[in-house]
Amino acid sequence: MVGIVGYGVYIPRYRIKTEEIARVWGDDGKRLAKGLGVFEKSVPGPDEEVATISVEAARNAVKYAGIDPKDIGAIYVGSESHPYAVKPTGTIVAEALSCTTDLTCADYEFACKAGTAAIQTTMGLVQSNMIKIGLAIGADTAQGRPGDALEYSAAAGGVAILVGMDNVVATIEATSSFTTDTPDFWRREGEDFPSHGARFTGEPAYFRHVGEGARLLMRKTGTTIDDFDYFVFHMPNGKFPLAMGRQLGVPKEKLEDSLVVRQIVNTYSGSAMMGLARVLDIAKPGDKIFMVSYGSGAGSDAFIIRVEKEILNHRGKVPTVDDFIARKTYIDYSEYAKYRRKIKALA
Amino acid sequence: MGNRVAIAGVGLTKFGELWDKSLRDITLEAGMYAIFDAGIKGSEIDAVTIGNMSAGRFTGQEHLGALAVDQGGLGTIPAYSVEAACASGGAAVRHAYMAIKSGEHDAILVLGSEKMSDVNQSQAMDTVSVASDWEWEGLFGATFPALYAFMARRHMLEYGTTEEQLSLVTVKNHANAANNPWAQFQRPVPLEIVMNSGLIADPIRVLHSSPISDGAAGLIMCTEEKAKELTDIPVYIEASTQASDTLALHDREDITTMAAVKKSSREALQKAGLTINDIDVFEVHDSFTIGEIIITEDIGITEKGNGGRIVEEGLTALDGKFPVNPSGGLKARGHPIGATGVAQIAELVLQLRGDAEKRQVDGAETAMAVNIGGTGATSIVHILRR
Amino acid sequence: MGEQGVAHVWRKLRAIYNIEGNHCKTCDSYFFPPRLVCPNCRRKGQLEEHHFKGLGKVHTFAIVRQAPEGFKRQVPYIVAQVELDEGVRLTAQIVNCDPEDVEIGMRVRACFRKITEYGERGIIVYGYKFEPVLKVTGHPYP
Predict the structure, then answer these.
(1) Which of these, A96, A201, C11, C124, is most buried using a 10 Å CB contact count?
(2) What ipTM was reported for this prediction?
(3) C2/chain A closest Cα distance in angstroms
(4) A112 is catalytic
């Protein structure tokens, strides 16, 4: 059956604390951190962006899977911070992996769920025998307008997932999506920073789509919360996934392990996938994972994933999510402003 | 063996930030001084060679050979523009040497010129970087000072060379330049100032590196017969040699030595029938002070690894056994890139004639100039004798 | 005529993305950057492509504090000569490492970073930099 043959992640080493950002804007950092459930976020270095993060994650995925990159037939990179507005990120990844030219490739954008949309696409291609292995990437160096609430949560990181039929480390048993036209968060062409509907991003957007998406897939597959060992929800902040879990009746301990949001916050297109990677790092063969991503605009992709014995043959080859989380260097707001090109006079 | 080649006249502009002078102004000025010094008629000059690294990038002007002939009113004589990065000046001297030696030309005006202050610091840095392997060093963030820092750090690790020794080269060369009216920095600088100057590429500090300079130098080179007509004290070029090494520093097995300097200096001594102990005065390429330390080892003044110590001991001071860079060197005289190799020869001619005034090395009869390009990919050595 | 940087970078993408150089079958030497002629064997040389592993150690380094355009945001940064395990040396930045922590002999591995860009509107150049080898802990199996 179709499944994950390998995965790899990448998180830049720099972190900025919620309290440091709050200090600059005269906010109460302690209260904010507690309220949002976000304590420090990952920040890309001055020479890191979606193409570099994607390549690092993809190289880890290939090494983890032990596959020949020449067997990759499709690459889809989901992001809302592609380095080029026109010119694909995926071709850079393909060249950096030494893939063949017998390859289809495109960049995806669907706010924070472009990466999981890429997983669905590659599943289709693999199952229809059009390709042997597909590479789906969710990566972002998310932008937050200085002083805006998003500045506390817009983080950087990426996850690459190789989808195939042979030697899968986790089977993707089912997937479905829930999609509406809901303008909760957007960025107009040519704008540097996204805008959002503030509290509108909650109930009619995140909670409706993740909740309905989850219920839809459970209904379609005849499953309940009790059938799953782990849950992963998109993590725009530390509060939302917990509240979602409560609404759906998910026991806290089944959600706990995916909450990378506390250490790195929201890696956007890589957010839910990072939570999945964290769970795959520790899950036992036979464990079942229920993941729902969310993308503003709006939609959710839900997945049922079963961990296979094969996973035991692959661990220890590449750094885990926790390895990347542990590697960190704190920076202050001025360094953050320098690295993130918020100082415009600097070329 | 061909003709013996002589130098009958020298000319220099002041080196420094020459805000009121253009590339053509300084090129013409150095050439005219050389012509006046030699007492040669314009009609007797039958060719021009000019060393220049990057006038196209620094000023937007190329084709400097024709420019020099035109501005000097030298009519229709042929002119050759020569480029070998920081060794462009030495290469212009060597081209003239070969042309006279072969009998093709009899009297050549040799020029070296660079106008660097008309661009900003970033542009100047980028332009200097093309002397290294730009595609595989410069593009990856290795600035020119960083490449010399690579050498310095290995030299410190392998031979115990110290930051103080790197700094003492600066102190020595500034002390010499204080007596050189053509030098960019005519003042001594104390050790603690050098040691505390800003780091530009650790361990290299700003006062371990040569400045951005404007300047030009000129020589009249000619056959022995011609020289005897012109002057009572001709200086002869006893050897002119050149050697190459890999363009990129990372392709060299040992980066604490410059193989091209070793080869070209040994060959030059052999051709001149001299040993290093016979040389009375040296001008060597101290674009960074680690360069002077490495070159003094490679030409055989001292053994490998000892180049820092001999500065401490005063061996290369003006009154030492091997006076190095009486002019102040590239560090203190200034380093208008294409002019440097010609200016080294001009200084040595003054030394051999006994015209170097307060920086005169007493009784100097033989001299050696070592001019290198890039990080040592080109080395050009000249030995002169009175 | 092409736009600045475009064809220049495109021609050597494979070399700078993946450290692809060559190996001479005649004298068993490795080369990076790739050479057109083996400098040891010249016409007797037989060059074949070689994909370097990207593992090596720091041979020498500098901390750049006066940087060219395009690197100013990274100052101070480490640039080094890295000696690859196959024996060749190349010049590259060391990232994910503070200037005070780098030392000669340090083990490093190749990573993928942005090298430079041709202005705000021009193309972006990606390629190799090196980083200290990241410790892979894995997780204690529950």
Answers:
(1) A96
(2) 0.94
(3) 17
(4) yes
